[in-house]
Amino acid sequence: MAENAIGKEYTSKVLEMAQNVIDDQFGQITCAADKIYASLKNGGVMHVFGCGHSHIFAEECFYRAGGLVPVNPIFESSAMLHEGAIKSSYVERMSGYASLILDNYDVKAREVILIYSTSGINTLPIEMALAAKEKGMTVVAVTSLNYRAVASRYKTGQRLCDVADIVINNNVPCGDALLKFESRNAVPCSSIIGITILNTMIAEVLARYEKDGRPLPVFVSGNIEGAQDVNEAFIAEYRHKIKAL
Fold this sequence. Notes:
By secondary structure, this protein is α/β, with parallel strands linked by helices. The protein starts with a helix and ends in a 7-residue tail after the last helix. Helix 1 packs parallel to helix 7 (190-211). The model has no long low-confidence stretch (mean pLDDT 96). It has helices at residues 2-40, 56-61, 85-92, 98-102, 123-134, 160-163, 190-211, 227-238; strands at residues 46-50, 71-73, 112-116, 138-143, 166-169, 179-180, 185-186. The chain has a 5-stranded parallel sheet with strand order 2-1-3-4-5, with helices on both faces. Strands 6-7 form a two-stranded antiparallel ribbon. 44% of the residues lie in helices and 11% in strands. Helix 6 links the parallel strand 4 (138-143) and strand 5. The protein has one domain (2-238): Rossmann fold (3-Layer(aba) Sandwich), CATH 3.40.50.
Protein backbone atom coordinates (compact mmCIF):
# COMPACT_ATOMS: atom_id res chain seq x y z
CA MET A 1 0.00 0.00 0.00
CA ALA A 2 2.84 2.39 0.80
CA GLU A 3 4.18 2.01 -2.73
CA ASN A 4 0.86 3.17 -4.18
CA ALA A 5 0.30 6.04 -1.76
CA ILE A 6 2.48 8.54 -3.61
CA GLY A 7 0.54 7.98 -6.84
CA LYS A 8 -2.74 8.66 -5.06
CA GLU A 9 -1.20 11.75 -3.51
CA TYR A 10 -0.40 13.06 -6.98
CA THR A 11 -3.97 12.53 -8.15
CA SER A 12 -5.40 14.28 -5.11
CA LYS A 13 -3.01 17.20 -5.40
CA VAL A 14 -3.48 17.73 -9.11
CA LEU A 15 -7.28 17.61 -8.87
CA GLU A 16 -7.25 20.11 -6.01
CA MET A 17 -4.80 22.31 -7.89
CA ALA A 18 -6.90 22.26 -11.06
CA GLN A 19 -10.03 23.29 -9.18
CA ASN A 20 -8.22 26.04 -7.30
CA VAL A 21 -6.72 27.44 -10.50
CA ILE A 22 -10.07 27.46 -12.29
CA ASP A 23 -11.78 29.13 -9.32
CA ASP A 24 -9.02 31.73 -8.97
CA GLN A 25 -8.56 32.46 -12.67
CA PHE A 26 -12.13 32.11 -13.92
CA GLY A 27 -12.49 35.84 -14.47
CA GLN A 28 -9.41 35.84 -16.69
CA ILE A 29 -10.62 32.73 -18.52
CA THR A 30 -14.02 34.27 -19.27
CA CYS A 31 -12.35 37.50 -20.38
CA ALA A 32 -10.29 35.47 -22.85
CA ALA A 33 -13.41 33.59 -23.97
CA ASP A 34 -15.14 36.90 -24.70
CA LYS A 35 -12.24 38.00 -26.91
CA ILE A 36 -12.08 34.65 -28.69
CA TYR A 37 -15.81 34.54 -29.35
CA ALA A 38 -15.86 38.11 -30.64
CA SER A 39 -13.14 37.18 -33.12
CA LEU A 40 -14.68 33.86 -34.19
CA LYS A 41 -18.14 35.23 -34.85
CA ASN A 42 -16.54 37.75 -37.19
CA GLY A 43 -14.78 35.06 -39.19
CA GLY A 44 -11.54 34.77 -37.24
CA VAL A 45 -9.78 31.74 -35.85
CA MET A 46 -8.06 31.06 -32.54
CA HIS A 47 -4.30 30.60 -32.81
CA VAL A 48 -2.31 28.51 -30.31
CA PHE A 49 1.46 28.39 -29.77
CA GLY A 50 3.90 26.80 -27.37
CA CYS A 51 7.46 25.48 -27.32
CA GLY A 52 8.71 22.12 -26.10
CA HIS A 53 6.06 20.34 -24.06
CA SER A 54 3.88 23.45 -24.31
CA HIS A 55 3.18 22.64 -27.96
CA ILE A 56 0.93 19.90 -26.53
CA PHE A 57 -1.79 22.50 -26.03
CA ALA A 58 -1.92 23.31 -29.74
CA GLU A 59 -2.27 19.58 -30.40
CA GLU A 60 -4.95 19.19 -27.73
CA CYS A 61 -7.45 21.63 -29.20
CA PHE A 62 -6.79 21.11 -32.93
CA TYR A 63 -8.98 18.87 -35.12
CA ARG A 64 -10.36 17.32 -31.98
CA ALA A 65 -13.52 15.24 -31.70
CA GLY A 66 -15.88 17.36 -29.60
CA GLY A 67 -13.53 20.30 -29.98
CA LEU A 68 -13.70 23.77 -31.45
CA VAL A 69 -13.28 23.88 -35.23
CA PRO A 70 -11.73 27.33 -35.88
CA VAL A 71 -8.39 26.58 -34.20
CA ASN A 72 -5.11 27.27 -35.96
CA PRO A 73 -2.18 25.50 -34.26
CA ILE A 74 1.18 27.13 -34.85
CA PHE A 75 3.35 24.05 -35.23
CA GLU A 76 7.00 25.03 -35.35
CA SER A 77 8.81 21.72 -35.53
CA SER A 78 12.18 23.15 -34.55
CA ALA A 79 10.70 24.18 -31.20
CA MET A 80 9.09 20.78 -30.62
CA LEU A 81 10.71 17.68 -29.17
CA HIS A 82 10.55 15.22 -32.06
CA GLU A 83 13.33 16.91 -34.05
CA GLY A 84 15.64 17.01 -31.05
CA ALA A 85 14.80 17.87 -27.48
CA ILE A 86 18.08 19.66 -26.81
CA LYS A 87 17.74 21.67 -30.02
CA SER A 88 14.21 22.74 -29.09
CA SER A 89 15.51 24.17 -25.82
CA TYR A 90 18.06 26.26 -27.70
CA VAL A 91 15.44 27.42 -30.21
CA GLU A 92 13.15 28.53 -27.38
CA ARG A 93 15.91 30.87 -26.20
CA MET A 94 16.72 32.31 -29.64
CA SER A 95 15.97 35.90 -30.53
CA GLY A 96 14.59 37.08 -33.87
CA TYR A 97 12.79 33.86 -34.78
CA ALA A 98 9.22 34.47 -33.63
CA SER A 99 8.23 36.93 -36.34
CA LEU A 100 9.56 34.54 -39.01
CA ILE A 101 7.33 31.79 -37.65
CA LEU A 102 4.26 33.99 -37.39
CA ASP A 103 4.70 35.34 -40.91
CA ASN A 104 4.11 31.81 -42.21
CA TYR A 105 0.55 31.87 -40.88
CA ASP A 106 -2.57 33.74 -41.89
CA VAL A 107 -3.18 35.89 -38.83
CA LYS A 108 -5.32 38.99 -38.62
CA ALA A 109 -5.83 41.93 -36.31
CA ARG A 110 -8.30 41.30 -33.47
CA GLU A 111 -7.76 37.55 -33.65
CA VAL A 112 -6.62 35.86 -30.43
CA ILE A 113 -3.43 33.90 -29.94
CA LEU A 114 -2.98 31.68 -26.91
CA ILE A 115 0.66 31.40 -25.90
CA TYR A 116 1.56 28.70 -23.43
CA SER A 117 4.80 28.97 -21.47
CA THR A 118 4.83 27.86 -17.87
CA SER A 119 8.00 29.74 -17.00
CA GLY A 120 7.32 32.69 -19.32
CA ILE A 121 11.02 33.59 -19.20
CA ASN A 122 12.29 32.35 -22.57
CA THR A 123 12.76 34.53 -25.61
CA LEU A 124 10.70 32.78 -28.29
CA PRO A 125 7.29 32.83 -26.54
CA ILE A 126 7.88 36.41 -25.38
CA GLU A 127 8.83 37.58 -28.87
CA MET A 128 5.88 35.64 -30.31
CA ALA A 129 3.60 37.68 -28.06
CA LEU A 130 5.26 40.91 -29.17
CA ALA A 131 5.10 39.94 -32.86
CA ALA A 132 1.39 39.09 -32.50
CA LYS A 133 0.66 42.42 -30.82
CA GLU A 134 2.40 44.24 -33.66
CA LYS A 135 -0.15 42.61 -35.97
CA GLY A 136 -3.01 43.84 -33.79
CA MET A 137 -3.77 40.47 -32.24
CA THR A 138 -4.92 39.87 -28.68
CA VAL A 139 -2.40 37.83 -26.70
CA VAL A 140 -3.60 35.45 -24.00
CA ALA A 141 -0.76 33.97 -21.96
CA VAL A 142 -1.08 30.84 -19.86
CA THR A 143 1.90 30.95 -17.56
CA SER A 144 2.94 30.60 -13.93
CA LEU A 145 3.39 33.76 -11.94
CA ASN A 146 5.53 31.77 -9.52
CA TYR A 147 8.36 32.31 -12.01
CA ARG A 148 8.41 36.03 -11.29
CA ALA A 149 11.11 35.07 -8.79
CA VAL A 150 13.25 33.73 -11.68
CA ALA A 151 15.23 36.04 -13.97
CA SER A 152 13.95 36.38 -17.53
CA ARG A 153 16.22 35.25 -20.37
CA TYR A 154 14.77 37.92 -22.65
CA LYS A 155 17.03 40.88 -23.36
CA THR A 156 14.69 43.46 -21.82
CA GLY A 157 14.10 41.45 -18.66
CA GLN A 158 10.38 41.17 -19.45
CA ARG A 159 8.46 37.96 -18.98
CA LEU A 160 5.52 36.65 -20.98
CA CYS A 161 3.16 37.89 -18.27
CA ASP A 162 4.52 41.42 -18.77
CA VAL A 163 3.71 41.63 -22.48
CA ALA A 164 0.43 39.69 -22.78
CA ASP A 165 -3.00 41.36 -22.92
CA ILE A 166 -4.63 38.70 -20.74
CA VAL A 167 -2.67 36.56 -18.29
CA ILE A 168 -4.00 33.28 -16.92
CA ASN A 169 -1.92 32.06 -13.99
CA ASN A 170 -1.64 28.27 -13.98
CA ASN A 171 0.13 28.50 -10.58
CA VAL A 172 2.52 25.68 -11.49
CA PRO A 173 5.44 25.55 -9.02
CA CYS A 174 8.89 26.47 -10.26
CA GLY A 175 10.44 23.33 -11.66
CA ASP A 176 7.03 21.86 -12.61
CA ALA A 177 7.30 19.14 -9.98
CA LEU A 178 4.33 18.54 -7.70
CA LEU A 179 5.54 15.81 -5.37
CA LYS A 180 8.25 15.85 -2.73
CA PHE A 181 10.54 12.82 -2.73
CA GLU A 182 13.49 12.41 -0.39
CA SER A 183 16.12 13.40 -2.96
CA ARG A 184 14.17 15.98 -5.02
CA ASN A 185 10.75 17.14 -6.17
CA ALA A 186 9.27 15.30 -9.17
CA VAL A 187 6.24 14.55 -11.36
CA PRO A 188 5.03 17.44 -13.58
CA CYS A 189 1.62 19.04 -13.49
CA SER A 190 1.67 21.84 -16.09
CA SER A 191 0.12 19.77 -18.89
CA ILE A 192 -2.95 18.62 -17.00
CA ILE A 193 -3.51 22.07 -15.50
CA GLY A 194 -2.97 23.76 -18.86
CA ILE A 195 -5.39 21.45 -20.65
CA THR A 196 -7.98 22.02 -17.93
CA ILE A 197 -7.64 25.78 -18.46
CA LEU A 198 -7.84 25.35 -22.23
CA ASN A 199 -10.97 23.25 -22.28
CA THR A 200 -12.66 25.41 -19.65
CA MET A 201 -12.02 28.38 -21.94
CA ILE A 202 -13.35 26.54 -24.99
CA ALA A 203 -16.47 25.52 -23.06
CA GLU A 204 -17.06 29.20 -22.27
CA VAL A 205 -16.59 30.14 -25.94
CA LEU A 206 -19.14 27.54 -27.02
CA ALA A 207 -21.58 28.74 -24.34
CA ARG A 208 -21.47 32.16 -26.01
CA TYR A 209 -22.38 30.60 -29.37
CA GLU A 210 -25.34 28.88 -27.79
CA LYS A 211 -26.45 32.01 -25.94
CA ASP A 212 -26.53 33.88 -29.27
CA GLY A 213 -28.44 31.05 -30.93
CA ARG A 214 -25.57 30.23 -33.26
CA PRO A 215 -24.70 26.63 -34.24
CA LEU A 216 -21.67 25.25 -32.45
CA PRO A 217 -18.57 24.88 -34.65
CA VAL A 218 -17.53 21.55 -33.18
CA PHE A 219 -15.94 18.55 -34.84
CA VAL A 220 -17.86 15.29 -34.45
CA SER A 221 -16.00 12.07 -33.73
CA GLY A 222 -15.37 10.10 -36.89
CA ASN A 223 -16.60 7.05 -35.03
CA ILE A 224 -20.15 8.43 -34.90
CA GLU A 225 -22.55 7.89 -37.79
CA GLY A 226 -23.00 10.98 -39.95
CA ALA A 227 -19.83 12.63 -38.70
CA GLN A 228 -18.09 12.70 -42.06
CA ASP A 229 -20.61 15.04 -43.67
CA VAL A 230 -20.54 17.42 -40.70
CA ASN A 231 -16.75 17.51 -40.52
CA GLU A 232 -16.23 17.85 -44.26
CA ALA A 233 -18.47 20.92 -44.27
CA PHE A 234 -16.38 22.49 -41.50
CA ILE A 235 -13.14 21.63 -43.28
CA ALA A 236 -14.38 23.22 -46.49
CA GLU A 237 -15.29 26.37 -44.56
CA TYR A 238 -12.03 26.74 -42.64
CA ARG A 239 -9.36 25.03 -44.72
CA HIS A 240 -8.12 28.28 -46.25
CA LYS A 241 -7.68 29.76 -42.77
CA ILE A 242 -6.03 26.85 -40.97
CA LYS A 243 -2.66 25.80 -42.30
CA ALA A 244 -2.52 22.35 -40.69
CA LEU A 245 -5.83 21.22 -42.21
